[in-house]
Design brief:
Radius of gyration: 20 Å
Number of helices: 12
Shape: globular
Main location: mitochondrion
Keywords: Amino-acid biosynthesis, Arginine biosynthesis, Mitochondrion, Transferase, Transit peptide, Urea cycle
Strand order of the largest sheet: 1-10-9-8-11-12
GO cellular component, one term: mitochondrial matrix
Strand content: 15-25%
Order of helices and strands: EEEHEHEHEHEHEHEHEHEHHEHH
Largest sheet: 6 strands, mixed
Family: Belongs to the aspartate/ornithine carbamoyltransferase superfamily. OTCase family.
GO molecular function: amino acid binding; ornithine carbamoyltransferase activity
Number of strands: 12
Oligomer: single chain
Structural class: alpha/beta
Length: 367
Amino acid sequence: MSKVLHNINGENGDAVVSLLNAANIHKINTRLVQCIRSKHGQPVETSIQLKGQDLLTLQNYTPEEIKYLLWVASDLKKRIKHKKEYLPLLQGKSLAMIFEKRSTRTRLSTEAGFALLGGHPCFLTVQDIHLGVNESISDTARVLSSMTDAILARVYKHCDLVTLAEEAVIPVINGLSDSDHPVQILADYLTLQEHYRSLNGLTLSWIGDGNNVLNSILLTAAKFGMNLHVATPKGFEPDPTVIKIAEEYSIKYCTKLLLTTNPLEAAKGANVLITDTWISMGQEEEKQKRLKAFQGYQITMETGQEAAPDWTFLHCLPRKPEEVNDEVFYSPKSLVFQEAENRKWTIMAVMVSLLTDYSPQLQMPTF
């Protein structure tokens, strides 16, 4: 069974109500005027309001603001990795890193990236800071606001992030929550922009669980003009509220949204095949039930035969063989390790954009 939503008129998306309240009303948004260098070196002024903001969900960011973050990521990657420049943009600044859930890529990309930019990251586990238990989240936010310049939190409950953002007077970044994973999606989109040179017109195919990563894609893909096909087993669909917002976005931005339970239908004509773990942290007791429900959802070369000739594969890692076989995962079609590296450049772009008045030197890529 499938459901197709295809826009023919783009006027209805303005009424979308924010699903995930970032609670930024009390914060002062510093108007940031950037100088963009054209091909001829002439600066062009554009206003981006990012400094001082939170990043709890990309739903609250306009297409231009998301593109700006990817532009900064491209710029930093070129200047630091390829030109070997030293950019101490965060010198004298510190970052509180709250990790309720373990991580390889989120921790390493944030910690290494903040240090590479001259700042001091402070890693806090549940043994160091039992969020909302040893002291209230409100009190924690106030203490961290007085000692650090920003907070990145990887938590179980999204509502805890909202409380942090309400009480903190410094930027709060979502390193992962039960409802959203915005820093992962930025890395995915940077990877696809590097590979395809443009995101507009691509068709993404998600085959797997209706989880937080899929939520982030549903809330952003249409903003880049990307179509989205989603295949999830019955009972494992994305949040209905997120689906409703994605439907509104598909209308507003003139894109196609397909919801189905058939993986091959979702793969048909797709440029990008995407999946994620079927069993997230905290779902271990559901393992056998989930493995049974997801039979037939493994991505293989046979899945790719339904996709567009230029198809590629993404997975945010860590990967299990039942989700995608070795033939795809280690093939030239797979962009997973480029995707993993881009976690560093995109989180660096987020931290630089929320904490400084940085102006990219690289010409803005095509999106």
